[in-house]
Amino acid sequence: MTTPSPEFGLDITHASDVLVIEVVGDLDYETSDELLDTVVDHLAPDTALRRLRLDFRRLTWIDSLGLSTLLMVHRHTSAAGLTLELDNRPGFLDRMLDLTGTLDHFTATATAEGDPTGTGAGTGTGTG
After folding, report:
1. Is CB count within 10 Å lower at the N or C end of the chain?
2. Are 56 and 106 in contact (CB under 8 A)?
3. What is d(CA 117, CA 40) in angstroms, rounded to the nearest whole number?
4. Composition bias, kind Gly residues: at what positions (predicted)?
C-alpha cells in the first residue's frame, strides 16, 4: 500500500514588484502544470513585477517533471525580465539541483548581483 502524497497547493502573495509563491506538498507529474500555469498567468506584458520568489519551505518532494517545470519557470521569468529566487530550499531539492548540474543555473543570478556565495538574497541555504 502506498502512502498518499500530501495535498498540493500554492500560496500566493503579491507585493508591489515581488510575487511570492509558496509550494506546498509534492511538485511532480500530477502538480507541475499548476505551478507553471500560475507563474505564466502572473507574467502579463504590462506587469510591474521584477522578482518571482518560489518558497519551498513546505515542499515535500520533487521529481524530474518538477525539475523540468522549474527550468521552464526560469525560462519564462528570464524572458519577462524577472529575477527568479528559490527560497528555503530543502536538502533534497538542493541535492537534485546539484546532481543534475542545475544548481548553478538557478543561483548564477545571485552571484552576478553581488552575492559571492551564490545563495542569493532570500534564496535560503536549504536549512529552512
Report:
1. N
2. no
3. 29
4. 117-128
User: pLDDT 10s per residue in the chain (128 long)?
Assistant: 445 556 899 999 998 899 999 999 999 999 999 999 999 999 987 778 999 999 999 999 999 999 999 999 999 999 999 999 999 999 999 999 999 999 998 887 554 554 443 444 444 444 44
Q: Into how many domains does the chain fold? A: 1
Write the CATH number for 77: 3.30.750.24
Range of the domain at 82: 9-112
Instruction: Determine contact, residues 39/57, Cβ cutoff 8 Å.
Output: no
Q: Are 105 and 68 in contact, with CB atoms under 8 Å apart?
A: no
- List strand residue ranges (DSSP E) for 1-128, in order: 9-15, 18-27, 51-62, 83-87
Q: Is the pTM of this model over 0.85?
A: no
CB-CB contact of 51 with 19 (8 Å) = yes
